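Long-time lurker. I teach an intro course on protein structure, and each term I like to show students one example going from raw sequence to a predicted 3D structure in token notation. This year I'd like something fresh instead of my usual example. Would anyone be willing to generate the tokens for the chain below so I can use it in lecture? Attribution to the forum is fine with me.
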Amino acid sequence: MQAITCAVLIALIAASAASPTRLDSSVVAAAHAFAANQTGNSVIGGHTVDITKYPWTVSICHKSGGGCTFEAAGSIIGDRWILTSGGALGKDSTSYRVTVGSNNYDKNGDQSILAEEIYYGGFSYDEDIALIRLSGPIKFGSRAQAIRLPAIESDTDNTSAMFAGWGHTSDSWFASMSSTLNEAQMYIGDGGVCQSRYGSKWNGRSMLCVGGNGPTTCHWDVGGPLMKKRSDGYWYLYGLAGNNDYYATGCSYPTIFTRIDYFCSWIERITRADVSCQ
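-- Reply from a regular --
Happy to contribute to a lecture. Here you go:
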């Protein structure tokens, strides 16, 4: 079944626009819809954690037919701003809801706020990032806080960082999502392994090569934060789990994360300097 999944996703990608690095949004949506019906998507090597440890972590769901289906995790970076994966979301911004302050992705948290607008870095392998502007402000407290963003050219290669998400906790094809938030310490490589495996899809300027030899992530961790606590005592968001539908990989390989510092100027421009890198 895994071989069939990869073949279908690769075929979808091959059918995209002529540019070798750009994906048509309809292709992204089709690949995401197909992968949403699959399993084997996991936070491997992690364990449960309370939301108060990473209070910027939120779940994003898509409203449809009276329900709301989990689509991605995200991070609070301002009282009206959420940062997540662009490939995980569609273009209808008003159909998304963000749950704040919850250990469980499928239960109401302290706050539930509708999206007002979604801004995309682009629909391509190396632009897998989106900003959600909320319809109302987040009330900050012990279960809801903003994470800081690192300045450009932050040195992250060959270091470790923490990841949080709701993906599966094993690589079993029949696994289900973890209902409770999980954390795992992950290794950030120098990009050589990802360059070798992903070829032209790899862009070391806008991506991080994470995991693969130990704790790692897959599809249902998409949008989740990769973070480090710096000497000033604050946590900083260094990466977000990319949409692995782009790469058609399983849970045994290094995961491509979006590198946050590369997008600092874009984030500051979209938020009109409400959010800035430090």
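Some talking points for your students: The first helix runs from residue 2 to 14. The domain at 55-145 is CATH 2.40.10.10 (Thrombin, subunit H).
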